[in-house]
Amino acid sequence: MLQTPESLQRNLNIEVRTGHNVLAIRPDDRQVEVQDIAAGKTYTESFDKLVLAPGARPIRPPLPGIDHPRVLTLRDIDDMDRIKEVVDAKIERAIVIGGGYIGVEMAENLVERGIAVELVELQDQIMAPLDPEMARPLQYHMEWKGVILHLGAGAQSFEESDGKVRVFLSTGTELLADLVILAVGVRPESDLAKAAGLRIGPRGGIVVNRHMLTSHPDVYAAGDAVEVLNPITGLPALVPLAGPANRQGRIAANHIFGKPGAYLATQGTAIVKLFDMTGGGTGANEKALRASSTPYRKVYVHPSGHAAYYPGTAPIHLKLLFSPDSGELFGAQVVGFDGVDKRIDVLATAIQAGMTVFDLQDLELAYAPPFGSAKDPVNMAGFVGANLLQGDIHLWYAEDHQMAMASGTIVDVRTPEEFEEFHLPGAINLPLDTLRTRHPSLAQERPVYLYCQVGFRSYLAFRILTQLGFDAYTLSGGVVTYCQVHGSEMCDGRPMAPVVPYAEAVSGRCRK
Amino acid sequence: MLQTPESLQRNLNIEVRTGHNVLAIRPDDRQVEVQDIAAGKTYTESFDKLVLAPGARPIRPPLPGIDHPRVLTLRDIDDMDRIKEVVDAKIERAIVIGGGYIGVEMAENLVERGIAVELVELQDQIMAPLDPEMARPLQYHMEWKGVILHLGAGAQSFEESDGKVRVFLSTGTELLADLVILAVGVRPESDLAKAAGLRIGPRGGIVVNRHMLTSHPDVYAAGDAVEVLNPITGLPALVPLAGPANRQGRIAANHIFGKPGAYLATQGTAIVKLFDMTGGGTGANEKALRASSTPYRKVYVHPSGHAAYYPGTAPIHLKLLFSPDSGELFGAQVVGFDGVDKRIDVLATAIQAGMTVFDLQDLELAYAPPFGSAKDPVNMAGFVGANLLQGDIHLWYAEDHQMAMASGTIVDVRTPEEFEEFHLPGAINLPLDTLRTRHPSLAQERPVYLYCQVGFRSYLAFRILTQLGFDAYTLSGGVVTYCQVHGSEMCDGRPMAPVVPYAEAVSGRCRK
């Protein structure tokens, strides 16, 4: 789309042979065997250095009926042309299998084309790179936009039905559609490398060192076909992203020409636009930290994307994961409407710089009302994280609700009206304004588990009670995070009205 | 607007006395003398620690006629109410004096209210925190939106004229308007501190140490009234910004209570929305680096805000300033339409982390077509900066045009059509596609000063010529930066059509 073989020849003196298929690599002979598809013949080509950049191909599990002509995958422009041809024929219903980046983007685009879409995902959340509670607002938003989700369900077989496809799910549900998009992940194109005797890693990708050199000293590899190191766990991982692939290509080229540079790790910074919302993350998520038994702490904040009185903003849901000792950042996830991409990039930069939650407090970010706040959401996350590590605040978490109910007093410090509309099971209501006089009603010997809407009022309540000698904790992220964790419909997925003040925007929509 | 004395009393147990004016501070007695304005009496109040946060007031130079009731300044909500009252009376013409943040924002808002606006600025550029060539696109955009600019002009006197104000400029021009907004800067409110014997700095602000302590051990100060250190020059500076003021308040409070934290410097990260455009910067600008005789290097790039094929993007103009030795970032300026605030914040974070141009190459930023490119504009600036310091590219600059014309051959490597539409004085045209065959037409013994539209094609040309033994240089930022530096109207200030492909968007509008 961007270049032709002729333009690359003219500008860069690179000979590009399209329609030529490499059948085999003989690294020790420094030769490849090439098939000229149009000419119908094969020939041998020599090299001094070889760079493999074959990418990854969509997974097509061997399910009955999966070869139905309306069950399509998406890798390249030809694939998209095939999908577009079907869509242009004015179809009514489509099924997307897989709730990752490609799956949700396909669902969004099909809805925008006026097609009724159902999305099937094996896990009980969409967007697996995010932790479940952070994927929840995106899920509700998709549902509000009309996408029917089948979570915790796998496609088991496909059947022709009068030109349509019938899909049988593991849950017993049958779906019928004009088009099925299979987006259940990709697999590195490492067969050629494997056949050539190059080392393949545990995840099936080509193994490379930090100069992108394979197990053979004259063969490099870069892009979605290689395994990278997860910077937190130190284990091999497959991270098929365009930015890292670009960097790897530069590093391979530099090494061939004796220039410095090394590829150390992939943070996995990624983002998706999903209708009016944006979500993404950088670094490790909580699932990965748990799986690798890495000690961590976490905080949730929900500030608005920019000054709440300036039109066009809505709450940002931001989760920060960091070292319990040094406060070094491990990862961050951000979901919301405006300014989400900016906060992900600032946090990606901070992680790469080895910054801590303490450093985030001091970031001097650009403030004018259309763009942020004098205390940016990233600063706010730093304040809460630093308070936590310094002991200025004690947090409890939504997933500890049963424990809190059993062992302490759960206190809602919001207004009686907010309490009436929704409150945590087992909570009593002591509005912040009354706490300085009404605290004697609380049992001093039991822990007090405070909460409010997003965590600000319960922080003030925590300070008041702590100074009075209570053993108090405040719920990280408040009711908003609680509802995201427990899957209650905190909000109905509606696009946030741009002029709704922050406090209203995040309150009053809990339906549990 | 956000809190009342009552809400602060209830929530935070803080007693707020509005309508009380501090007349004098007696630090050694730990007392202040207070006037209760409503009661018409004064009283003495004691303190253990005192925090001064008086802010800054707009400068009103003692010019003839400046007390005209329609010559207004803007500091607080009352000021804005007065301005709004005049505007609501359906006036036709307004003059804004001062082209800094407040001046240009006032001009924008008045235009949005349907008022004809003229802006008077003493310097020959608007937005002095930016270097002149970076302010230029904002200037053209303002003019396209109908604001008449009087640059290099000062207001000398004001005169009543049938309920309107006549303004006499230093250039001899006379202007007439219904309203004049005076936005020529602010002055720290340090009189009270000075009278109390506290140390005042060379810029007129209150002197504080890194704990925000004044010259008296019981008196702190924070916000626009204090002097901070410029991190590059190490000299005292006044930087009236909301983010730093907030941080200073926290640091003063922490120190009072024996908690850690220090205020080291103000980067001066700032941003302005100006109609459809955004511009801002962080760290030192080139003017400051020159003034302090700090050695530096610079690069300009003009990539699009996000993937050019995805709607809603336009070129970002990005200038990066850094150490010639280590590549450490000194400052950055970013001007454009979409994604400007994000790049400023990423660069502000990188500067705070002590990152170099080499580090910028490796930043793993979030990429999806609506948000960026696989190689983000910040990465691109890092690539060019790193290439420069590694000697992989030699740059020349638009301000060296006379020198280049006198001492070498200026070669335009764009197409003949682009050359025909606009080219640098003295340039010859050798399109990149032809360079590998036509280079013998170039004199080997003279330096070759290459350029193209934004710098990509001339980089390729540089590599070709250098490998052929030429002493070649490529123009940083290409024709786009050339036109911004020399003030030719590179673009007419129109909002960039969101679907115009990048190459077209940045080409073809040079009218010099």
Task: Give an account of the 3D structure.
Chain A has 512 residues and is an alpha/beta fold. The first copy, chain A, folds into four domains: 31 residues, no CATH class; 117 residues, FAD/NAD(P)-binding domain; 121 residues, FAD/NAD(P)-binding domain, CATH 3.50.50; 107 residues, Oxidized Rhodanese, domain 1 (3-Layer(aba) Sandwich), CATH 3.40.250.10. Chain A is built from 16 helices and 27 strands. The first copy, chain A, has a five-stranded parallel sheet with strand order 6-13-7-8-9, covered by helices on one side. A five-stranded antiparallel sheet of chain A has the order 18-19-22-21-20, with helices on both faces. The longest helix of chain A has 15 residues. At the A-B interface, helix 1, helix 6, strand 18, strand 19 and helix 8 of A face helix 1, helix 6, strand 18, strand 19 and helix 8 of B.
